[in-house]
Automatic annotation (TrEMBL):
It holds the Pfam family Thioredoxin_8. It catalyses: [protein]-dithiol + NAD(+) = [protein]-disulfide + NADH + H(+); [protein]-dithiol + NADP(+) = [protein]-disulfide + NADPH + H(+). It comes from Rhynchospora pubera. CDD domains: C1, TryX_like_TryX_NRX. PROSITE patterns: THIOREDOXIN_1, THIOREDOXIN_2. Residues 1-168, 324-485 form the Thioredoxin domain. Its EC number is 1.8.1.8. The keyword Repeat applies. Keywords: NAD, Oxidoreductase, Repeat. Belongs to the nucleoredoxin family. Gene3D superfamilies: Glutaredoxin (3.40.30.10). It is an enzyme of class 1 (oxidoreductase). GO terms for molecular function: thioredoxin-disulfide reductase (NADPH) activity. This is protein-disulfide reductase. The lineage of its organism: Eukaryota, Viridiplantae, Streptophyta, Embryophyta, Tracheophyta.
Amino acid sequence: MAGNGGETYDITSLLSGNDRDYVVRNNGDQVKIADLKDKTVGLYFSAHWCPPCRGFTPKLAETYQNLTSQSKPLEVIFISHDEDEESFTSYFSEMPWLAVPFSDSEARERLDKTFKIRGIPSLVMIDANGNLLTEKAVGFVREHMSDAYPFTPERFAELKEIAEAEKRNQTIRSILVRGERDYVFSSKGDKVPVSELEGKYVGLYFNDSRSGEWEEFTPILTQIHEKLKQNNENFEIVTVLLDDEESSFNDTLTKLPFYVIPFEDKSIEKLIRYFELRSLPTLVMIGSDGKTLRNNCADIIEEHGVDAWEGFPFSQEKMGILEEKAKAKLEQQTLESLLVRGEFNYVVRKDGTKIPVSDLVGKTIILYFSADWCGPCHAFLPKLIEEYNKIKSKHPDSFEIVFVSSDRDEDSYNDFYSSMPWLALPLDDPRKSFLKKTFKIRGIPSLIAIGPNGKTVSKDVRMLLTEHGAHAYPFTEERIKELQVEIENMAKGWPEKIKHELHESHELVLTKCGPYCCDGCDEMGGNWSYKCRECDFDLHPKCALEKADGEDMGEEDGKNAAQEGYVCEGDVCRKVE
């Protein structure tokens, strides 16, 4: 059974399998489950294919080794979500703890169901008496590492009080001073006392100098810094470089006009946890009193560019000024303002032919942000091509798509673009960066619709095409409202319940819902589903009714099924609901 605290489990029953009373080490040695009876046990649900898992595993390993070296009665058991034994073996080789054998899929699936695992990484802690301590230990380890031990509610309450006290008493010294180090470096390598930053506004700039985000964001931040200096604002920037190579760090240091925390300083990990770092770049704004004004100003700078300096120090009043400017800029938006930058006034066909942007004015244009390396992009592309052809057949002179690639090399770009029937921006085109910032592209595939007047019509074209297909054209609010009325009227004629051969154990009930992944065709859906809540099973009405009527739905190859069934956001890969 599972719950949110107060439950008791028998570790032997949880971890054992048919004729198996042991777990294994990564060298193949067997460890009797009975040997765990006096220990706190962490059940670690993870997978090698999951980026947030690979990011968390080293933190958990450091925590585990720190605690076991102190003879703390702790053990961790890896419950794999990998797709094959080779991936499991490779990933497990990095772990210092035990695992349920990959071959015992029945036990692994039973543990998933027992604790209702909906996202990974997940870490469930159970004490030596079998009492459930927490199902959310990943967050506690990320924030507190070994200080989270013994993972009891009392310890978490104590840590919360300590953190709140630190926030209440925060100063620039408490943020930047670590042990005997009470300085930061200048770009010349000089030690600058932290005391010189007291009474000033300070921006803590988290980034990695080897990332694309560094190349795009740092020049803009440098210009803002210069503008504020010219305006006599009392403002400094302290860079928290996340580079793991000292040569890269030293090279970057000489090029920066900002202060820098020393390479691999132990305060960096603490700052990452303290400010709950979730993305790069991040710019934390500290007030002249040493208190945090904003946890991240990077999105403001990405949206407004160098003009963001006018919003300093990003108070509510100053933000109002920036928002008014942005609103005025949006009202002046045209297709040319989006797609013309100096001599870059064209898009291209696959054969390299340049098409002037002026030829696209007056049409509905979809900006298609995608890449060859992106699994979901490949999965969505056939659907997009199908709906594109349908729209073009009816509106050949008033509709087009422009591919905006996030590929990293020419071969990948050309290979992916070769399957598309529409236009594109060249791979190394400087307009791509501007468009991603303008529309705040955080994930791909993303599709943005621009109307005939050059104004943004919709930022959610992917979902509109998934739900409505070509009928969504021209993607305006008025058209979507019309479609929703049509669907509501159609739903009145659909059966309330059906039996379906893809889910024979229960009836499927017609349910109004949000986005979901259809278990019949593996495509996204929304508005209405034939659902089994008990089994978390969904079918598009089209899939459900076609199959229920005995028609052939066709087959999907299921490629990348496990990954396609998850969405990776920030620090977790979640199953699509």
